[in-house]
Amino acid sequence: MSSKRHEVNFHVNGRPVSVAVSARTSLADALRNELDLTGTHIGCEHGVCGACTVLLDGQPVRSCLMFAVQLEGAAVTTIEGLKAAEGKLHPVQDAFRECHALQCGFCTPGMVLTVAAFLERNAAPTEAEVREAIAGNLCMCTGYQNIVRAALRAADDRKAGK
């Protein structure tokens, strides 16, 4: 196996970064091990659970399925970079807190990023649309009711200018 490292330059949470990684290093591993952004959780490592979801150029992706070398020039947002003005919680984070949409917290970063990206595309979703949007993110603790409630509340809060 080759130990050759590849220099990759991209942006994470609005900051330019440069990492040297092997060709097979996943984005999830690069974020956690090279950049110390441990909010990106690694679950199944097969792209099924959604725990590792981050935003790549604004779109949710499974970071366990992407190689870090694919990111040259890209923009990645992790849970650590999702925030509103003045460092306040993002409306989705605030809604998750207010609606008790988390328990163990393992799925929460991926779920929050998925919902945030979804609300950028659909500012006034129905409950069914929220359920479909989060269908690729598994949660073993909550039963999804409060997650759906939080997504709908975040949509309402955004409309109200909160």
Strand order of the largest sheet: 2-1-5-3-4
Would you tell me the overall average pLDDT? 95
Report the sheet with the most strands, covering strand number, pairing sense and barrel closure: 5 strands, mixed
Based on helices, strands and strand pairing, what is the structural class?
A: alpha+beta
CATH architectural grouping of the largest domain = Roll
Low-confidence stretches: none
CATH topology of the largest domain: Ubiquitin-like (UB roll)
Q: What is the tally of beta strands?
A: 5
Helix content: 25-40%
Fourth CATH level, the homologous superfamily of the largest domain:
Beta-grasp domain
CATH class of the largest domain: Alpha Beta
- Number of helices in the DSSP assignment: 5
CA-atom Rg in angstroms: 16 Å
What is the terminal separation in angstroms? 52 Å
Shape: globular
The amount of beta strand, in percent, is: 15-25%
Overall domain count: 2
Report the order of strands and helices. Answer: EEHEEEHHHH
Describe the structure.
The protein is of the alpha+beta class. It has 2 domains: 5-81, Ubiquitin-like (UB roll), CATH 3.10.20.30; 85-159, DNA polymerase, domain 1 (Orthogonal Bundle). The protein is built from 5 helices and 5 strands. A 5-stranded mixed β-sheet has the order 2-1-5-3-4, sandwiched between helices. Helix 2 (91-98) crosses helix 3 and helix 2 crosses helix 5 (145-159). It is globular, with a radius of gyration of 16 Å. The termini are far apart. 43% of the residues are buried.
